[in-house]
Amino acid sequence: RSYSSSVDSARQNLASSFVNGFINTGFGKDKLLMVEEGNKWLYKNKEHGMLSATASIGLILLWDVDGGLTQIDKYLYAREDWIKSGALLACGIVNTGVRNECDPALALLSDYVLHSSNVMRLGAIFGLGLAYAGSNRTDVIQLLLPVFADSKSNMEVIGVTALAVGMIAVGSCNGDVTSTILQTLMEKSATDFKDCFAKYLPLGIGLCYLGKQDAAEATIAALEVIPEPFRQTATTLVEICAYAGTGNVLKIQQLLHICSEHYEAEKEPEKKDKKKDDKKEEESKEDTPLDLSGQQAIAVLGLGLISMSEDIGSEMMYRTLGHLMRYCEPVIRRAVPLALALTSVSNPKLNLLDTLSKFSHDSDAEVAQNAIFGLGMIGAGTNNARLAATLRQLAQYHAKDQNNLFMVRIAQGLVHLGKGTLTLNPFHSDRQLMSPVAMAGLMSVLVAMLDVKTTILGKSHYLLYGLSTAMQPRML
Questions:
Q1: Can you give the pTM of this predicted structure?
Q2: Are 49 and 14 in contact (CB under 8 A)?
Q3: CA atoms within 13 A on the CB side of 451
């Protein structure tokens, strides 16, 4: 212990920034950043770490538009682009869920959306997405859409922009957003689809149709032009968003069917949707078999997403996911903890706690990391004593493994979210009403968790701030 505490690891500092942000969410003061030496802490983080560390100020000042923006302002003049970008994201986080006729977020962030540096773009675009989530404001959407066609935008910027416009237009079936993202998808090459941010393009479309069921069918049909394996991933992602929280049994059967397929490199895959893909499957069989494992991970998430709206569905899903965990491929197993967590956000049931803590000792690193994050999600803002103890044990168990330890710290921060005064639960009045904005925030983070090594544990950990749209006071 003594040795490790003397080494100021950038990864540990980054974890501390997140934990500090989550614990002091909405309190307006903390011991790290709001003090005299607050700037020093930012420089203890590596480049991309600075972005998230600065953005955590936005969490601490959550919803305090008048007082908060003046305190963030000084970071907009920093030397490093990372800090400036973090400050832009912080401005967006502060305005999350707040309607203000002055539109401070739009005024501050609009100049940076097409900035020459992609780092600055990320903060501004994601910030706008969080600040105007659910507002379906035409002016904000029109500001963001040109980013897709801009030659400077890399895949990360395009993915985050798709997520941002999806959050702004959540559940609105906005035609401008869906057609622009579709157009972008059609122009991308096969290598672009291998990028972990490619998934955010269909997610942006899916968020537009969140919970709207049949309304998404025309768009799903339009997605058929994308090249295979990504086509299946995209259509499944839009479909699960369209049926989010509906408890639709037929969709759940369809998703379970997707999960039952086995894709191994040597064998040729069985035909999937026999009606639709007959000809296409024949063509692709000549070259190499399709690897549709990406679609399976999405399908597992969809199981949790569709069945989360009622108790009986969630209990049945608990059993079904247990079967998937035992008998399925690694890709599916990695998504199971996330689906389990989604059925019971901010509601730490004992059977879920036990199951997830069992998975958090799994031999597959990604299963363990997702299970640890799942523990944080089901206990978010509950201060659950048993869960806190579990996480402390996990921290000792994973003391040697930087990545797992980072996840444990994030989960600890989530459990004590806002010192136990906040919740991430997207449902209101006993699962009668689903908040689409909160659901969009949770989905943005869960899709990132499917590629945990390259996103949350890589350089894109700022995606965790997507949770800020789902934060609401518990008691009100």
A1: 0.89
A2: yes
A3: 20
Reference 462, options 238, 192, 187, 159; nearest CA is: 159
288, pLDDT greater than 60: no
Contacts of residues 397-406 at CB distance under 8 Å and 24 or more positions apart, as own/partner, are: 397/361, 398/368, 399/4, 401/365, 402/9, 402/11, 403/365, 403/369, 403/453, 403/457, 404/365, 404/368, 404/369, 404/372, 405/12, 405/15, 406/11, 406/12, 406/14, 406/15, 406/457
**Cα distance between residue 59 and residue 61, in whole Å:** 5
pLDDT at 387 over 90: yes
DSSP per residue over 213-224, as a string?
GGGGHHHHHHGG
Query: Got the DSSP string for 256-309?
Result: HHHHH----SSSPPPPSSHHHHHHHHHHHHHS-----HHHHHHHHHHHHHHHTT
Q: What is the mean pLDDT of residues 66-91?
A: 87
Could you give the CA distance from residue 362 to residue 364 in angstroms, rounded to a whole number? 5
According to the model, what pLDDT value does residue 416 have? 94
427 beta partners: 434
- Nearest C-alpha neighbor of 348 from the set 405, 391, 393: 391
Measured CA to CA, the distance from residue 66 to residue 177 in angstroms comes to 31
Give residue 250's pLDDT. 92
Pairwise CA distance, residues 277 & 283, whole Å: 10
In angstroms, the CA 124 to CA 114 distance is: 9
Q: Cβ-count burial of 400 within 10 angstroms (0-12 exposed, 13-18 middle, 19+ buried)?
A: exposed
Amino acid in the structure at residue 325: M
Distances in Å between the Cα of 309 and the Cα atoms of 315, 425, 431 are 11, 11, 6
Q: Read off the amino acid at residue 425.
A: N
pLDDT for the residue numbered 31: 85
pLDDT tens digits for 129-144? Answer: 999 988 888 999 999 9
**Residue 412 or residue 101, greater confidence:** 412
Run of H or E residues at 249: helix 249-260
The CA distance from 38 to 28, in Å, is: 14
Residue 75 has pLDDT above 90, yes or no: no
Tell me: the pLDDT tens digits for 47-62?
888 899 999 989 999 8
Contact indicator for 87, 54 with CB cutoff of 8 Å: yes
